[in-house]
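Example for tutorial group B:
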């Protein structure tokens, strides 16, 4: 209760199949955010000469450029309804932080962001967006918390990690009565807010009499993929459909392909409760890949469970190959996607090419969950042939519960 708004904790442990979206949240969603279109990528299909059909849901059309406002708006609303005045959170690439800054401004809340230092320096545009929406934003580790100061003493240029930024936001929250913490991924209530994406997509597919055979999505903490796929997963678990689900991650942060399914902390300073998840260990030093949103050591417990049970399959890709896929998408469909999303674009393209060989008319769907217009330095490195690949050789995960 001291960390999250009460209603969000109730949602976290709820057994209800559906939870009604409050009118105020629906009203905020309608302000240029929802519904988002579902597009068929006909030009991409033609370029690949595939018999497969490729569809994508356009979450990049939100005012902040990604799917993150779906949960930011809901979390800001429930905090406001409880009388909370100020929100604190971490942000990696800045998509989540800007979404919470925007949602806080809609509901008249103060907002404090701890942004992973390396991204803070790489992405001044995200800082400006957050400040325009009235948020305070600090590079993490920061001099604003005890934990941040202790890290800066050892290394004044510490690049930061998402785990450290979470620890700082939690320390901030616990030091002030008027503040609650918000998280942009991983937890059940966040994933549940995102399922509006899949619910909407299901209706849109219904309208054209199509049902996807394969759904792929990129996974950082798991929220956009869960949001898009869980409403379809429900049909699979009931035995109504046999859809394939593919979670796409970065080779540099292989939490779903090489992680251990065990209990681990969600943050670096070990403040959070232990979560049962696929994890690389909360001390894992995520390499500085351009897909900042995929740099997290753990995976949502619900996605970890589904992967562990074999209902979802994980794959990992290197930086260069995902940017190649993003370039094909840009040159056929006209949109520049986020580096994170490029991971599932890569899978969709490869699968469509497999279908070309087999003649399968598979329906492939993915969540186009962010645009890359504030990630142009990543595209610049790619175009200049300067991308560096990272593949951890050995991963040691401490085991808390055997
Ligand atoms: C565009 C985009 N895609 C994906 C992610 C990964 O997060 P999640 O797995 O929670 O969707 C992020 C996170 O910041 C993001 O900004």
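The residue assignment follows.
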């Amino acid at each position: 209760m001291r960390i999250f708004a009460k209603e969000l904790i109730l949602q976290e442990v709820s057994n209800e199949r559906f939870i009604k979206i409050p009118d105020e949240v629906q009203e905020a969603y309608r302000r240029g955010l929802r519904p988002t279109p579902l597009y068929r990528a006909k030009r991409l299909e033609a370029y690949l000469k595939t018999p497969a059909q490729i569809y994508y849901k356009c979450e990049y059309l939100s005012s902040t450029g990604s799917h993150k406002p779906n949960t930011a708006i809901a979390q800001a609303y429930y905090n406001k309804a409880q009388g909370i005045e100020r929100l604190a959170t971490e942000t990696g690439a800045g998509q989540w932080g800007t979404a919470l800054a925007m949602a806080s401004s809609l509901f008249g809340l103060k907002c404090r962001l701890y942004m992973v230092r390396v991204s803070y320096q790489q992405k001044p545009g995200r800082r400006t967006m957050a400040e325009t929406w009235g948020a305070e934003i600090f590079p993490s580790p920061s001099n604003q918390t005890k934990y941040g100061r202790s890290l800066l003493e050892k290394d004044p240029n510490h690049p930061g990690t998402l785990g450290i930024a979470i620890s700082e936001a939690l320390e901030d929250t616990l030091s002030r009565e008027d503040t609650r913490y918000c998280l942009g991924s991983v937890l059940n209530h966040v994933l549940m807010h995102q399922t509006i994406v899949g619910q909407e997509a299901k209706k849109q597919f219904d309208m054209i009499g199509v049902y996807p055979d394969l759904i792929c999505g990129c996974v950082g903490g798991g929220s956009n993929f869960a949001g898009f796929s869980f409403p379809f997963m429900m049909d699979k678990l009931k035995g109504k459909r046999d859809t394939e689900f593919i979670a796409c991650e970065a080779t540099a942060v292989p939490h779903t392909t090489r992680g251990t399914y065990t209990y681990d902390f969600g943050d670096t300073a070990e403040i959070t409760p232990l979560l049962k998840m696929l994890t690389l260990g909360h001390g894992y030093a995520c390499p500085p890949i351009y897909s900042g949103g995929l740099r997290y050591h753990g995976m949502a417990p619900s996605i970890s469970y589904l992967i562990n049970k074999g209902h979802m399959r994980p794959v990992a890709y290197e930086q260069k190959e995902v940017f190649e896929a993003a370039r094909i998408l840009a040159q056929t469909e006209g949109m520049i996607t986020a580096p994170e999303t490029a991971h599932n674009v890569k899978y969709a393209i490869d699968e469509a090419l497999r279908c070309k060989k087999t003649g399968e008319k598979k329906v492939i769907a993915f969540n186009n969950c962010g645009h890359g217009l504030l990630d142009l330095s990543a595209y610049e490195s790619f175009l200049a042939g300067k991308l560096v690949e990272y593949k951890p050789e050995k991963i040691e995960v401490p085991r808390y519960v055997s």
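The chain is about 45% helix and 15% strand. Compare this with the pattern of hydrophobic and polar residues in the output above.
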